[in-house]
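Reopening this ticket.

The earlier resolution said the output was attached, but the attachment link was broken on my side. Pasting everything inline this time so it's all in one place.
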Amino acid sequence: MSDQAPPSTTSPDPEAIAILGGTGDQGLGLALRYAAAGRRVVIGSRKPERAEAAAAEVLEKVPGADVQGFGNDAATAAAEVVILSVPFEHTASTLKGLKDVWQPGQILVSMGVPLATAIGDGPVRTVGIWQGSCAELCAALVPQGVEVVSAFQNVPAHRLQHLPDPVECDVIVSGKKAPRERVQALCELVPGIRAINGGLLANARYVEGWTALLIGLNVRYKVPEGTGFRITGLPE
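Inline output:
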């Protein structure tokens, strides 16, 4: 577990899933689900001790899980697929701190949303950003050769963490075809999640805005476990 040596920076594991911000509610939920699916999970945090504590929590809930906790740089170096699960206001600083760690062929999954909480406002609104979406901001901040895919913005954290039940939510996945399809396959390791082909990364700007809508619905309808979306009419 976390007492092992940090992963080598020379060869990201194609089977591992790194989750930066895996100490937060949604990131921890994904860590639990992927650990339960039998995948190697590497949790990253600015403070390695917080990542180690989150890894210990995953191991407690999923006995025998292959899970480790490290600082963000070591976690990023450990896996070909890296999920960024940090508040929007920490997106740029986190990625800038990793600019020398990335290797060509890695995939960054952006699940961030530019909620207005970043500027001291409420979570039921978003703020405009020049790139158009958090995912496109991420694409502007990673080195050439690292692909960015948008996914997971609208999955309730509470439902992710409650392992006995399926999540029952569609996930819109946007980005270039090959990395998008790889992330779609990862989505469907979580019981109840259906991955939807969201096309180009630019479509993330529409999907991210749904999060503020869902937060408002959760409040108005008093759904503490969180609401989600289902897209109807698609062929099986």
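Reporter confirms the inline version is readable. The helical segments are 25-36, 48-61, 72-78, 91-96, 134-141, 157-161, 177-187, 204-220. The first strand starts at residue 13 and ends at 20.
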